[in-house]
Design brief:
Oligomer: homodimer
Largest sheet of chain A: none
InterPro entries (chains A, B): Homeodomain-like_sf, HTH-type_TetR-like_transc_reg, HTH_TetR, Tet_transcr_reg_TetR-rel_C_sf
Protein name (chains A, B): TetR family transcriptional regulator
Number of domains of chain A: 2
Radius of gyration of chain A: 20 Å
CATH architecture of the largest domain in chain A: Orthogonal Bundle
Organism (chains A, B): Rhodobium orientis
Keywords (chains A, B): DNA-binding, Transcription, Transcription regulation
GO molecular function (chains A, B): DNA-binding transcription factor activity; transcription cis-regulatory region binding
Helix content of chain A: over 70%
DNA sequence: ACCTGAACACCGTTCAAGT
DNA sequence: ACCTGAACACCGTTCAAGT
């Protein structure tokens, strides 16, 4: 009558936070937002769905951890001209955002999990604009332009072609467009 | 043993396409993307969920019909300067997008339903830029800037404050930012 | 601490049937 | 033509329990 319970295979290593995050990103990048379910992720990890809850609390917690993981290394170089520093920061951000468009959509869907990293990146851009000597209204306006444009470009990338060549084209295009926009900041 | 089947009340008018669309927009604007389910919409209409399927096929069909309905009247004025016509078109688009941020998110989520209206609006902007005499590479670049920025601003609005004052501030802000961007187009 | 199965309250959608 | 209830194959998540 009773079926076996508890951990079945002693030989299987316990799923680590990092393994779950890696598998989650793979699932999201491969199958898109539709395929990204707790149950599908558990299947991929050969694990019970509840294991994931043990590590991340709930789905929002997992998404939050994913964005911390993906955006962690987006930082501005410490030195250089204003132009170069902001261009470098935004390119780095765009690169992460375009590499995982599904994650971008997930974040946009749930206001509750707007990640600390995204907030920090926004703050960094803001600070760079202020350092560049822009008056506060102009700096706020250009912050919006740069951030909103980047997010819009992410959406376009998430909806369109996701082949390698399309991604590298998109990066190139973004950088060129950024240069065009930064002309506006500097006048 | 058998319970009553078929249409129960003769006094209830059949749900029209337009009633369903109106109720769907209300549900989406009030409760956001999370609350927007076929079953919740049916409840609100006091109707069986399957009634909606009869009119729109499936959920994607409903979203598609919603976007046709919401974006239908976004058009550029026939006459005026290039600057005024493009500004008017983009303000109209932004106004619709910001009035129904949940719809914007729904569309972004499903590449399959990128609506004809959105495509048409994009094409209209493109044509205005070409008419303005921009060389094709510059016109493609500015099309991306204007459209992606507008979508990014929509996302920001969808995630943030949705009070009446915040919405009117956002409109004002968008128009001012647009003017700033259009300076870049004209040089 | 880490993982499990069973269960709960939801989804979108298909089906066969009523009027 | 228009609408119905029941059912199917999913969801995220809670619970109580195993090792």
């Amino acid at each position: 009558m009773t079926r076996p319970r508890g951990r079945p295979h002693r030989d299987k290593a316990p799923a680590s936070r990092d393994q779950i995050l890696t598998a989650a990103l793979e699932l999201l990048d491969t199958g898109g937002i539709e395929a990204f379910t707790m149950r599908a992720l558990a299947d991929r990890l050969q694990v019970n769905p509840m294991t994931i809850y043990h590590h991340f609390g709930d789905r929002d917690g997992l998404i939050d951890a994913l964005s911390e993981h993906v955006y962690a290394e987006v930082t501005a170089p410490a030195s250089g001209t204003f132009h170069d520093r902001i261009r470098s920061l935004l390119n780095a951000y765009h690169d992460r955002v375009i590499s995982h468009p599904g994650l971008t959509l997930l974040i946009f869907r749930q206001p509750a999990v707007f990640p600390r990293q995204a907030q920090r990146i926004t703050d960094d851009i803001d600070q760079l604009l202020v350092e560049a000597g822009l008056p506060s209204e102009r700096s706020r306006r250009w912050l919006n332009i740069l951030v909103d444009f980047t997010h819009g470009a992410a959406i376009a990338a998430a909806m369109g072609d996701r082949s390698n060549s399309a991604v590298s084209d998109a990066k190139d295009d973004y950088d060129k467009t950024l240069t065009e926009l930064l002309k506006g900041v500097e006048t």
